[in-house]
Amino acid sequence: MSLARGDVPSCYLHDGRVTWSLVAMTALASGGCGSRPSYWDSNVGTPTAQGLANGVALVDDANHRAVLLTAEADQQLSRASFSVGHQVRNVVASPDGKRLFVLSTGDWPRHSAGDERPSLTVIDTSSGATPTRYPLPEPLPDLAIDPQGRYAVAYAGAQSTSASFVQNPNEIVLFDLKPSSQTDSPNPVSRSIRSFGGSPSRLTFTPELCVHAAISCAGKDGAPAPGQRRLLLIESDIDVTLLDLDHAFLATPPAEITVRLTSGASARVVAPRGLAVDGYDMSSPGDARIALRTDDSNVFTILLGPSTGTPNDFAPTINLTDVGGAPSSIAFVHTDQGLRVAALVPSASNAVLVEPDTSLTTQIALPAPYASMSLVTSVVDAASTAPSGTDTALLWGSATGSGVAFWTLGKTVGQPYRSIEVLPDVTQPIRSVHDVPGKNPQLKVLELSQGSGFLVLDLLARTASPLHTAQTPTLAISPDGSGMWAFAPDGTDLARISFPSLTPLPLTTDLSIQAVYDVARRDGGRALVAIHSRGTLGATVFDADNPDTATARRVPALLLEGP
Amino acid sequence: MKSLAMLLAVLSATTAASVARADDVPAPEETPAAPAADAHKAMWRFELGYRGAFVTSPGYGPFSTDDYFSQVSVAASRTVLVRGRFSFAPGLAWDYGTTSATARGDITSLTMHRLGVPLEGRMHVARLGYAFVRVAPGVVLTAAEVQDPSAPAALSKNRWLMAADASAGYAWLAWSRPEGPGPMARLWLQGEAGYGWVATERLDLAPDLASGSSQRASGADLGALAMRGVFFRAAAAVSF
Known about the structure:
The complex is a heterodimer of chains A (563) and B (240).
Chain A: H1 21-31, E1 48-52, E2 55-60, E3 65-71, E4 77-83, E5 88-93, E6 99-104, E7 119-124, E8 132-135, E9 142-145, E10 151-155, E11 171-176, E12 189-192, E13 200-205, E14 209-210, E15 228-229, E16 231-236, E17 239-244, E18 257-260, E19 272-278, E20 289-294, E21 298-306, E22 314-322, E23 329-335, E24 338-345, E25 350-354, E26 361-365, E27 372-375, H2 377-382, E28 392-396, E29 404-408, E30 419-422, E31 430-435, E32 443-448, E33 454-458, E34 463-467, E35 474-477, E36 483-487, E37 493-498, E38 504-508, E39 515-520, E40 526-532, E41 538-543, E42 553-555
Antiparallel strand pairs in A: 1-2, 2-3, 3-4, 5-6, 6-7, 7-8, 9-10, 10-11, 11-12, 13-16, 14-15, 16-17, 17-18, 19-20, 20-21, 21-22, 23-24, 24-25, 25-26, 27-28, 28-29, 29-30, 31-32, 32-33, 33-34, 35-36, 36-37, 37-38, 39-40, 40-41, 41-42
Chain B: H1 2-21, E1 44-54, E2 68-78, E3 81-83, E4 86-103, E5 106-116, E6 119-125, E7 129-147, E8 155-176, E9 186-198, E10 201-207, E11 220-225, E12 229-239
Antiparallel strand pairs in B: 1-2, 1-12, 2-4, 3-4, 4-5, 4-6, 5-7, 6-7, 7-8, 8-9, 8-10, 9-12, 10-11
């Protein structure tokens, strides 16, 4: 008779050590004596927490699962567990917060047929459907997600440490997350990007671009037209690659287009530092443009147009413009004179407007060395009775004294722009700017580079209200725009700041806070889930609409539930 | 096998006879002189032993690194009926066991008290001892506890549950005081094996907050626990 569980019985007679051999053997043979599931032996470690639209995902790598916490009424949390691949390397949420992407290297190297291969697990938290698992040919650490939710790309990345002895850093794996049911195209597909010595470092998904107006760029019922393309722009450390996503899943896909930035005439290596895509009008062939800034003083503008050549039916036309210094930020902007590429050059404390077809430039002196900009046209125009049709940009910088300014494009007599309005009360260097979605899009939250506190900027009133904190806070904006949260990392202090009144409501928790997530509650309200990295992870749940420590609930042992 | 069947029959028959006696007591003068009680069969008996149980319930995982549960057993019984080689002895029994482990880094413990009424049918084999079968309905008190630093207090749950044992074994007469006046003291060594059943319990642990605490806290659900399975018991007993 064989033992019921396990090859070797691991039990023994405890305490008394009574060796009543016959009885014990009978009992062993009848009942067996195995060890418990390995789940209980694995420590929780430091799980990855990821906020989603309707909950918080905790990736429990030790037990190969993602636990989705969903907020319920009365500050309760419900839990659902989803299986994910082994050895999680990257966890990303989709921009809409409805899907969770978990990239796993698998049991590498594999020692048995049962060991897992690398994979990407996609969990749709809105539908509750069974997660989709996509196999990968080899372990890849980085993941880029299409903002429109159609594609995902796994890639090695230039800075990643390889799990394999030999790795091709130019290999990317493309996933079609919404494949057409009529096609039997391979999915995912693996591509090795043509390289001239570089390797991918940053990926950008474009919106629909009209690259071939002769075929037609007018789609019906929102469907893409034959002349439209979505592209994957891959920045390496020396060049940029354009990959046609719409044809990437064909059995014989067209080759990608490589735009080389480094001239073979010198040893100087030019590296891309960021790009902008003109996607205002997807039916206009004049709008299929890409602007690229580099680590030298040049801005590349790339116009995509039809081509009769093969393998792609479009081709880039490249213009190179010297803007007088290394640009720190670029954007396509609409001015009274048409479309321009705006480039900020903080080393010269100026901005440069580049005419993309002719490379003519207009220098604009700025009152401070602003390094970053964000277009706020939609907010400003929405409040205007007569929209100007030109853009307004918010400028800020991380250098001392830079502060923030509003740059209104357009043209007035004697200058190539309408106005630059500096907020005099804001002189602190700004580290980052957070958008406020939903109810209060006119607000921006400015994180300071130095000291504590932050600013809430009203784009319409042109005011910047300071909020002071006892120590450097971590900020989280409510997805519905009704307010924001500030907490001291690894501290117990928390505050809710309501918009637009900016009234802070102090709160506290019993345990130190690792992260906070403002999520939709199943019954329609909102909840704040403050995660505590203690034990098997705990949380304090507040009613986000009416937070109060008296109604908050401690939810302990989040990862201790039975497997 | 035939003896075992007869032993089981005696167990049920003597139980019924014991109940029937109260209604149908014969007149004293009609009763033939009762033979002197056979002290090998009719006795008070006190046991102290060790019980090992094999629990395969997934809910047992947080509390033990294996499927084994150790307990100490204490029992007392009195022979109430003797029929030839067979006798019947009801009693009271208490089993106690505790186990602790770590589950995902948390310290856990599970304590169980089992109170039973063993009903034991015996078949005596000369003066060497006796074989027995035993059923023991009863109740169990389980106390589960998890110490998780994220909880405001220990997560725990105590609950009474229905339980029953069925077992068979043999008691060997290890020592006997020479016959003479006074109680007939004897020492027995015995072993038995069987199956212990306990009702299933949901391990929805709750923080053990101080009474009057207004703190709002949820618990943790560790799944279902069924403390049932094959067990054996080794015991020493004295009888009078």
